[in-house]
Amino acid sequence: MALKSCGYGILGMGMFAPEQVVTNADIEKIVDTTDEWIVTRSGIRERRKIAADEATSDMGLRAARNAMADAGVEAEELDLIIFCTFSPDYGCPSTACVIQDQLGIGGKCGAFDLNAACSGWAYGMSTAMAFLKSGMYKKILVIGADAVTRYLDERDRSTYVLFGDGAGAAVLGETGEDRGFVGQFLIADGTMGQELIIYDSGTRKKTEAQEAKSPYPIYMNGKEVFRFATKALGESLQGALDDAGQGLKMEDIDLLVPHQANMRIIDSAAKRMNIDPEKIYMNIDRYGNTSAASVPIALTEAIERGRLKQGDTLGLVAFGGGLTAAASIWIW
Ligand code: ACO
Fold first, then answer.
1. C-alpha 212 – ligand 1 centre gap (Å)
2. Rg (CA), the chain
3. 37 CB under 6 A from ligand 1?
4. pLDDT band of 306, cuts 50, 70, 90
5. In the β-sheet with 165-174, what is the strand arrangement from edge to edge?
6. What does the pLDDT look like over 90-143, one tens digit per residue?
7. In the prediction, which pLDDT does 1 show?
8. How far is the CA of 171 from the centre of ligand 1 (A)?
9. CATH for 181-331, options being 3.10.450.350, 3.40.50.970, 1.10.760.10, 3.40.47.10
10. What is the residue-averaged pLDDT of the chain?
């Protein structure tokens, strides 16, 4: 079956991971945990940590430059920058505006931040595709970057071991019908918002009840998020396949690049979705959960490692705070 795209898709990918590697052995010295617990419960062996004098935009800028070089696209050609993050440099200006300035194209294109937590970049890719499909814009930079280690507290071992920092980016534009975007699906369930929350990062002050539940900057109900994720991964991916139409089925996916939050979530979701684990790209062992950066980092690596060939059907899927989930299907 010769799939057809909408004529727009990914022109180039790039990533950036901070230099500092934090291994499970390093973490053992900081919190009451073991390498064995972390590996068996999550699949994580090491993660990266942003330098003390750096911010999220510093990682995003490097990933963006790598993606633009890969796409052969100059900054002046961009019509829009979407920066997906829940750990921005500031409340204002947006991190997208910071990047626009650093790229030397201040005032020359639109720029905004998008927050869908770990689903952020996947949401951003769908948003960018809507602009491209409408004909409003021709070239869009979508960055996913987070510095979650800035929100972690050494006294909370349940979240401390899981997260790392990083950035990934895509340049989207015209590809022709034989390559590119075919379908997407977004999920959000605000009723579960309190299951994963970062306190005092906005205008709502932490309540006494919340403080009693978690005296730390992050509260995560791991079991509820786990349950949501294993279900939402399959639902969003099926939604994207249905949106793609053309008779596409789960077994037609050649490579699936999921959000890297927990190896066990992916194993369990893969069983539910009936997807061969060989078709799933994982790198959680080396980066941990990098939130909005996780899918673009994994996709960039998968491309570099030759896991995609021309004409392959690619699935991207993520879940995260909100709670949210998002999936999309592409012809490579
Ligand atoms: N080291 C050692 N022991 C630990 C640690 C740790 N780092 N953390 C928790 N434990 C202990 C707990 O205290 C508990 O002990 P107890 O039985 O004596 O009470 C025991 O280990 C089991 O804890 P559980 O919470 O039951 O462990 P579980 O098997 O559920 O795994 C985990 C926890 C890894 C957090 C899992 O629930 C998970 O991955 N959930 C999804 C989280 C996720 O993906 N979040 C990211 C969302 S994306 C975003 O938008 C940010």
1. 19
2. 19
3. yes
4. very high
5. 8-16, 165-174, 140-147, 80-84, 110-114
6. 999 999 999 999 999 999 999 999 999 999 999 999 999 999 999 999 999 999
7. 61
8. 35
9. 3.40.47.10
10. 96
